[in-house]
C-alpha cells in the first residue's frame, strides 16, 4: 500500500527510484513492515510503539516499555494519536486514543548499513495536545535531503502534565507531572536502540520542536534523564533569556511542584474526582472536558514541573550549574508572534477591510489608554522610559511602537539567552529571525505568525505558494538538514550564517531576506538589558 505523504519535491529534490528498504525491519521488540511513499525513494513506518498504552493503572505513571511481539507488525497506516482538542488543533478526522505512545519514521536509506543524521520532531499543540498528523510537519522532504526523520507522539494536556499530592506520594520520589517529558525520554531511548535499523545514526540525533514542542526540547535539555540521548537541538520559538518575564507567559513556562499540585486539585474538582483512582476510571473524553473547563489553555495553568526528579532545576539554575548538554543549537523567533501583527494590519482595520482583533492577542490594538496600562504593568518603574522609546500618543503610534518593541525583544532575548547558554560551553549557537508571511487570506493581518516557519523548515508547499515561497522553503530546509548532519547549517550554496559569538549583536534573518540583521539600536538595546537585569531569574 503506497502512502501519499510527499508533495512536490523541493528545488533540490527529485523523484528517484523506489525505496530499497522493502523487507521487514528488525527492532529490539520484533519485526515491522513499512510502505513506500508514492513517487519517492522513501519508506514510511507509522505507529511504531515504544511504550505500553498508558491507560488504567498506567495513567499518570512513567511510561512502561512496550512488550515484544511475534510475527511482523504492519506499520503502513496512520495509528490513532493521543487525546487532543480537535476544535483547537484541527484534524478532527484523525482517530484519538490513549494507546498512542508511538513514533513515525521516514527514511530514504537503502539499508541498515547507512548512518544518516536523525531528526526527531517533538510536536507542539495545546500544552502538548498535538500529534504527528499535521501535513505541515511531514518529514518526507527532510528525508529526501538525507535525514532519517522521526516524530514522537507523547502525552499532552492533563494526561502528560497533571500533578497532585497523591500522585507525588505514590511515585516513590515525591514528584508528579512531567509524564510527557518521560514519554519523550523513553522514545529517545528507543531511538538509540533501534534507529540504526532504519539507516540512522544513533550518535547523531537532533531534536526539533516549535512552541510547546520547543519548550519540551528545552526542558529535555534541563533533565538529567535525557543526558546523552540527543546531540543537537533546533527550537523554533521560545529560546528566551531566563530574566525575560515573557518566558513565563509562553510555552516555556514551568511550575514549582506545590503550585502544580494545587492546580491538579482544582482539576480534580472540575472533573468530579476525589482521588487518582477516580480519575483513572474516567474516559479520556471526560478528562479533556475537565481540561477545557479548568482554565486551560489561556491561563497557562498546565506546565512542566520543577519536581526535583525529571526537572531538578529551572533554566537559570541549570545554566549556572553547567548542567545542560554541550550541544550545538539552532533557534529563533518569528517577526509577528508574541502579540505582534503584520505591519499592514492597522490600515486594513482602519479601512474596514478587516475586523479589529482582540487586543489581548495583539498588543498593537490596545489603544492609547490600554497601551499605557500595559506599559505600567509590564515595565513597572521603567514604564515611562519604555514609552519614551516606544511612544503611544495615537492609536497608530501605539500600533507601530508595540510591534517594534515586541520584535526588538524577540531578537534581543534569544541573543542574551545564547550568552548564558554558551557561558560554560564551546559548541555553537545559530540564531534566526523569520520574516516571511505565508500567502493566505489573513496574510495582511497576521504576517509571519507563530508557527508560520514550520512548512518552510519542512519544505512542505502550502496553498497558493509562489516560486519565492518554494525557494525560501528549499533554503531553510537545507539549513536544517545541514545542521542535523554536522552541527553547522552552512554549505557553499547558501548565504553565510555566522554562529553566535557574544560580541556581534546580530541575528540571521531567514525569509524575506537571508542576511544578518541588528538586534536593535543601541539605546533600545541598553533599555532591554537593564530591564532584564531588574527581573528575577527563572
TrEMBL record:
SUPFAM superfamilies hit by this protein: alpha/beta-Hydrolases (SSF53474)
Alphabetical UniProt keywords: Signal
Superkingdom in the source lineage: Bacteria
PANTHER family: CARBOXYLESTERASE
Protein's name according to its UniProt entry: Carboxylesterase family protein
Alphabetized InterPro entries for the sequence: AB_hydrolase_fold, CarbesteraseB, Type-B_Carboxylest/Lipase
Signal peptide: 1-19
Segments forming domain Carboxylesterase type B: 24-515
Classification via Pfam families: COesterase (PF00135)
Amino acid at each position: 500500500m503506497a502512502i501519499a505523504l510527499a508533495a512536490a519535491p523541493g528545488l533540490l529534490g527529485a523523484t528517484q527510484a523506489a525505496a530499497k528498504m522493502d523487507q521487514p525491519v528488525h527492532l529490539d521488540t520484533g519485526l515491522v513492515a513499512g510502505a513506500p511513499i508514492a513517487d519517492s525513494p522513501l519508506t514510511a513506518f507509522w505507529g511504531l510503539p515504544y511504550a505500553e498504552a498508558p491507560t488504567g493503572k498506567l495513567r499518570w505513571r512513567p511510561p512502561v516499555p512496550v512488550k515484544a511481539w511475534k510475527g511482523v507488525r504492519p506499520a503502513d497506516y496512520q495509528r490513532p494519536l493521543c487525546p487532543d482538542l480537535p476544535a483547537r488543533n484541527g484534524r478532527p478526522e484523525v482517530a484519538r486514543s490513549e494507546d498512542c505512545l508511538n513514533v513515525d519514521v521516514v527514511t530514504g536509506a537503502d539499508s541498515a548499513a547507512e548512518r544518516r543524521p536523525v531528526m526527531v520532531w517533538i510536536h507542539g499543540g495545546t500544552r502538548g495536545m498535538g500529534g504527528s498528523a499535521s501535513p505541515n510537519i511531514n518529514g518526507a522532504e527532510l528525508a529526501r535531503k538525507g535525514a532519517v526523520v522521526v516524530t514522537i507522539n507523547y502525552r499532552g494536556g492533563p494526561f502528560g502534565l497533571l500533578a497532585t499530592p497523591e500522585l507525588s506520594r505514590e511515585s516513590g520520589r515525591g514528584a508528579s507531572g512531567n509524564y510527557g517529558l518521560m514519554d519523550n525520554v523513553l522514545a529517545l531511548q528507543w531511538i538509540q536502540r533501534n534507529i540504526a535499523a532504519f539507516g540512522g545514526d544513533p550518535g547523531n540525533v537532533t531534536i526539533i520542536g516549535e512552541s510547546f514542542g520547543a519548550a519540551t526540547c528545552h526542558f529535555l535539555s534541563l533533565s538529567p534523564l535525557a543526558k546523552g540521548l540527543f546531540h543537537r537541538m533546533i527550537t523554533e520559538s521560545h529560546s528566551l533569556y531566563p530574566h525575560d518575564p515573557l518566558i513565563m507567559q509562553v510555552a516555556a513556562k514551568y511550575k514549582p511542584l506545590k503550585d502544580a499540585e494545587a492546580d491538579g486539585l482544582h482539576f480534580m474538582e472540575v472533573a468530579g474526582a476525589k482521588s487518582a483512582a477516580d480519575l483513572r476510571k474516567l474516559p479520556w473524553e471526560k478528562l479533556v472536558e475537565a481540561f477545557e473547563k479548568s482554565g486551560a489553555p489561556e491561563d497557562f495553568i498546565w506546565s512542566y514541573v520543577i519536581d526535583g526528579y525529571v526537572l531538578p532545576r529551572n533554566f537559570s539554575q541549570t545554566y549556572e550549574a553547567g548542567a545542560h548538554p554541550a550541544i550545538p543549537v539552532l533557534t529563533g523567533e518569528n517577526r509577528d508572534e508574541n502579540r505582534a501583527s503584520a505591519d499592514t494590519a492597522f490600515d486594513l482595520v482602519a479601512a474596514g477591510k478587516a475586523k479589529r482583533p482582540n487586543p489581548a492577542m495583539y498588543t498593537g490594538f490596545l489603544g492609547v489608554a490600554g497601551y499605557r496600562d500595559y506599559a505600567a504593568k509590564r515595565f513597572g518603574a521603567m514604564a515611562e522610559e519604555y514609552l519614551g522609546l516606544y511612544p503611544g500618543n495615537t492609536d497608530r503610534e501605539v500600533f507601530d511602537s508595540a510591534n517594534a518593541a515586541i520584535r526588538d525583544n524577540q531578537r534581543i532575548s534569544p541573543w542574551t539567552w545564547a550568552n548564558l547558554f554558551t557561558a560554560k560551553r564551546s559548541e555553537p549557537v545559530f540564531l534566526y529571525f523569520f520574516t516571511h508571511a505565508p500567502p493566505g487570506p489573513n496574510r495582511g493581518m497576521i504576517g509571519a505568525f507563530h508557527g508560520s516557519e514550520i512548512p518552510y523548515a519542512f519544505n512542505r508547499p502550502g496553498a497558493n505558494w509562489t516560486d519565492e515561497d518554494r525557494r525560501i522553503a528549499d533554503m531553510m530546509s537545507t539549513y536544517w538538514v545541514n545542521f542535523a548532519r554536522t552541527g553547522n547549517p552552512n554549505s557553499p550554496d547558501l548565504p553565510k550564517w555566522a554562529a553566535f559569538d557574544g560580541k556581534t549583536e546580530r541575528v540571521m534573518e531567514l525569509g524575506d531576506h537571508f542576511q544578518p540583521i541588528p538586534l536593535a539600536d543601541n539605546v533600545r538595546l541598553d533599555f532591554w538589558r537593564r530591564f532584564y537585569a531588574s527581573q528575577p531569574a527563572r
